[in-house]
Amino acid sequence: MSVGYDHVDTAALKVRDIPLGYTPDVLTEATADTTALLVLVAARRIREAIHAVEQGAWGTWSPTWMCGHQLTGKTLGVVGLGRIGEATAHRLKAFGMSEVLYWGRSRRYQAEERLGAKHVSLEELLAVSDVVIVFVNTARGGIVDQEGLVRALQEKEIAAAGLDVTTPEPLPIDSPLLKLSNCTVFPHIGSATYEARESMARVCVDNVLAGIQYEPLPYEKYKVIPRGGVVIDCGAAPGGWTQVAVARVQKKGLVIAVDLLPVDPIEGASILKGDFMTGTVQAHVRKLLEERPVDLVCSDMAPNFTGNHMADHARSMELCESALEFAQTVLAPGGCFVAKFLMGGTEVEFKLKLQTLFTKVKQEKPDASRKQSTESFFVALNYCPPTEKSTTAEADT
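Predicted structure:
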């Protein structure tokens, strides 16, 4: 029961056509809490302080004894500003951190607006940040050079470190990391809250029930990606949803990902760099489809933010309209359409339009979104081409 699957032989599963279920998108808040806690533990030397109490080293008061660093006025550097990274930065800003820098393969424009964050090179981030937090996905602890980290901590190049993932796990009790007073290691408890684990368990149960009935495993609430299906992912960078789609459709499916920004190669996906709004890119998508009907068109496209909410809202709805116009030409009957937008008023008209084309339309706000965020999604299920819908309506009358 986990989000990561680095401990699974995915190649062996693929050869045997065995579906793999996992539990994404339910750990954001719990993991962000844990990460913020690790920052505080490292900055304020909490491990040393607890040890001093337990070992009888708590003596008379001294001006500099057990002094650490406060976060007020410091610069935060985030390597990997996904949902968890943004949620963690949001928490740490409450402690008065003055600036948030981040590095990643692509810009996160909405996160920049919400956090006042700045996208910089990795070199600049490491050079100027007072606190650096690193978020890893399937790489887990293996992305960290632990021997190098030990040396940096011993030589005080890094003042302190807090880890929740290591290689291997469990970490051997004779590991040099555990002998350092300025290194705190948690036993991989990022998601260890009752709320998160209950959500994970529900997803697992849904996965098992779907699996034993030979149905697609329900990654999300709505089963919009069938095994062997065809998916078009618009606004794909950095590639997370594309990876999910590839895992869901498996070897008989087709996933086409499009974005203005570069996306690293993803095995099993056709990736196009370009503006989906242009006829040239859409023609390229049609060529890759080879006239196969599409099961899902997903638009995660976002406008370049101007700071004027109504202008940004209007532009987001234009992107939705463009994605829907294309979807109508490629979706199979019964197909699905998912589109991200910024709430602002005119989405009501767009929803009405969707309701004339799909039998079920829902509006969903991501669990990881801040309460004040206007970001939302339309999920439209069971596409009924207009001619088919009209015929059905006439038969009912």
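Summary: The mean pLDDT is 87.
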